[in-house]
Amino acid sequence: MIKKTICAIAAILFLCSVCLPVIAAEKETDFDVMSESALLINTDTDTVMYEKNIDKKQPTIAFNKIVTAAIAIEETDDIDMTVLTVSKNAVTSASLGGYGSGIEEGERFTMRDMLSSILISSANDCCIVIAEHIASSEEAFVEKMNDFAKRLGCTDTNFTDVHGVDDEGQFTTCSDMRKIIEYARTLPNFYDISCQTSYEIPAADNQKERKIKTNISMMLKSTDYSYSPVRGIKYGYSPSKGRNFASTATRSGYNYMLITMNGPIKDENGERLEDNSAFLDAKNLYTWAFDNFRIKQILSETVPITEVEVKYSLDANKVQAVPEASITAIVPKNINTNEINQSGDLEYVFDLPESLTAPVKKGQVLGTLTVKYRDRTLGEVSLLAGQSLNKSEYIYVLEVIRGIVSQTWFKIAAIVIAGLIVIYITIAIISNFIRTSRNKLRREQEEQNRRNKK
């Protein structure tokens, strides 16, 4: 019961995490990726670094075993105390296609033994043992597998067996496998088991001792494909379907997950390739990512990013805009993140008003800033006022007056009033002139009359 509760919590956390936006930072590779589909993710920042045909349906091959193991862990309270018995069907089933591990009918193994067998050495018959233990039959367990995929939001995945032996009816995509693997890694024991290079099943009850060795050559120092950063998760090969490989890699504090599907077995001329295309792709992509990208702080919440004009304040005529939170992203290591609007690939898109009206309160949201790299959004953050600015009533009144004076209607009114004043003055001058002239004429007339009387 405790185990199922833990798995339920893990599922909830996983579904919440996959709702986060994917931040992409892409750079052209200087090599060809042979696998038909590929998806490389920086798991520190949830950034898609490289993608190729990630929604194209491909053969599942051994990826079935990832789902088989995940369901087994979900439904087993204690993998060390749970014992499974090998049935005749598990070692003779036609679905095995002749690929078995050598276990025999009647032998008993712990769930950890079986999980180790399928995740480390890709044992097909052990998958049937698990299926029959949990669901009574392989067919019933396959239904659980498809329900499991749908529960995680997979839309282009279908399983018809528990191990991945060739079947035209089963398929998946890099996008769907990302959801499945990211969830599986949250389950107890899954990742640790898949990262082991070997496992020993001790002899017991007349059973012979067995030593299991990983089929991921990249984890073995003795092979030509050895690459120390690689760990787990599952490698599979089908003579007719190609190579699938899901893995993780860690170097210098950087963590990646890679899914490649349908790696070629033959060249364009139909000749068998000498090298393992899945392992070569993995080494090339991981090396490229480790060598070319770094996690850098793009924005700091303590450093102002720009300024916005503020009206009606005596304190200042501009307010600093500060990011609400820091933005950290993985970008090409040669990018200078200390310069805004530089000539490089980083683009800063501001959504801010041309000006503000005082008062402005410190912490007030001014707008937003979106940082992009080659048209991919690295992050978006709100911009806040870095200081408070008080409103000046004196400046406000002056600005109001200035605003009124600058209005067209005011200018027209002023012209009309000025015209009326000119007309009034003109009329007053003319009236005064006429009045003065009349008075003068009247005085002269009166003077002339006095003279005539004398």
Characterise the protein shown here.
There is one protein chain. With 454 residues, this protein is α+β, with helices and mostly antiparallel strands. It folds into 3 domains: 2-295, 3-Layer(aba) Sandwich (Beta-lactamase), CATH 3.40.710.10; 300-391, Peptidoglycan synthesis regulatory factor (PBP3), Domain 2 (Sandwich); 393-427. The protein is 35% helix and 24% strand. It contains 11 helices and 18 strands. It has a 6-stranded mixed beta sheet with strand order 1-3-2-10-9-8, sandwiched between helices. Helix 2 (64-74) packs across helix 6. The longest helix has 46 residues, at 408-453. The chain is rod-shaped.
Which properties best describe this structure?
single chain, alpha+beta, 3 domains, Peptidoglycan synthesis regulatory factor (PBP3), Domain 2, 6-stranded mixed β-sheet, 24% strand
CATH architecture of the largest domain: 3-Layer(aba) Sandwich
Shape type: rod-shaped
Number of domains: 3
The secondary structure category is: alpha+beta
Biggest sheet details: 6 strands, mixed
Q: In total, how many beta strands?
A: 18
**Helical residue percent band:** 25-40%
The CATH class label of the largest domain is Alpha Beta
H/E element string? HEEEHEHEHHHHHEEEEEHEEEEEEEEHH
Distance between the termini: 145 Å
Radius of gyration: 40 Å
Mean pLDDT: 88
* Number of H/I helices: 11
Query: Quaternary state, please?
Result: single chain
CATH superfamily of the largest domain: DD-peptidase/beta-lactamase superfamily
Biggest sheet: strand arrangement: 1-3-2-10-9-8
As a percent range, the share of strand residues is: 15-25%
CATH topology of the largest domain: Beta-lactamase
Unreliable parts: 8-27
